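User: Is it possible to get a 3D structure for a protein together with its bound compound? The compound here is nickel (II) ion. I've pasted both below.
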Amino acid sequence: MRGGRHIAAVTGASFDLAAGQCLALVGESGCGKSVLASALLGLLPGNAQTAGTALLHGEAAADDAVDLLTASERTLARTVRGRRIGLVPQSPAAHLTPVRTVRGQLAETLRELNRTPRSALPAAVRAAADRAAFPAELLDRYPHELSGGLAQRAATALALVGGAPLLLADEPTTGLDRDLVDRTADELRRHADDGRALLMITHDLAAAQRIADRVAVMYAGRIVELTDAAGFFGTPGPRHPYARGLLAALPERDFRPIPGLPPELGDLPGGCAFAPRCPRATDRCASAPVLADGVACHHAEEPVRA
Ligand SMILES: Nc1ncnc2c1ncn2[C@@H]1O[C@H](COP(=O)(O)OP(=O)(O)OP(=O)(O)O)[C@@H](O)[C@H]1O
Ligand code: NI
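Assistant: Yes, that's possible. Here is the predicted structure of the complex:
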């Protein structure tokens, strides 16, 4: 940033995601979810720095793995984006081509990724739109003529077209009514059930609960809990105090917000970033806990205070 300031948008994130699985990445606004997704697609701004590895394996041998963090722009553009990794972007309006109708964009994507023959295009376009509940009668609209929810559906339809082995869906249910949320989530789940992988970034814990196999909770740029969805949403529940707070804040649960605000990522405390808001914090939290056995907290195993 200007003045030599750094923002640690994502720190030490480590996870794997297998074919056939859905991992939900959840956390408050600004915690680094989209930056993580952008890093995997080589779409970070030019001033961003990355370290580490992000291996994308192919279906066959391990030797066709690509390190997404070091791959060339050429490789990413030609073989990764759209083909090996599909993206439902967080701001679909900004990603849709402004001068082409939804029909035109779907047709082009079908031709490019699936080699759909011209004669089969009209039906294929309608089928692709239908998968994301995009109304057939609005296919001739341009992106600026779409509401947020419709743009979202168009972007989801486009992302599903290629059947990419990994789908990154960044807030794919924003702006949709509850029944459409469920329908969209189920369609994304089907993508995973077809033997592909789905990384779903979402604020919507109900949608995550509906379709995720595993959950990763991010706080202030770090994954603080990574665990099976069934145990997370059911019994025994989350183990990290922040994750417990996220669930407790839901209207259908306690409806009790976590007090305080997340820290500035440009000015993170030395120890556990959640400590200032944490009911369990002690002196031990002055050192940053590492993710071990699925949770990054010095007090994860202690009984919860009422
Ligand atoms: N291009 C950028 N330049 C500077 N800071 C950025 C940039 N992009 C993201 N950030 C910062 O990185 C942090 C993480 O942002 P990110 O968009 O990943 O959050 P998020 O978890 O996706 O939140 P939301 O739920 O609001 O989409 C934020 O604090 C944001 O201000
Ligand atoms: Ni985001």
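The CA atoms of residues 4 and 118 lie 53 Å apart. The mean pLDDT is 93.
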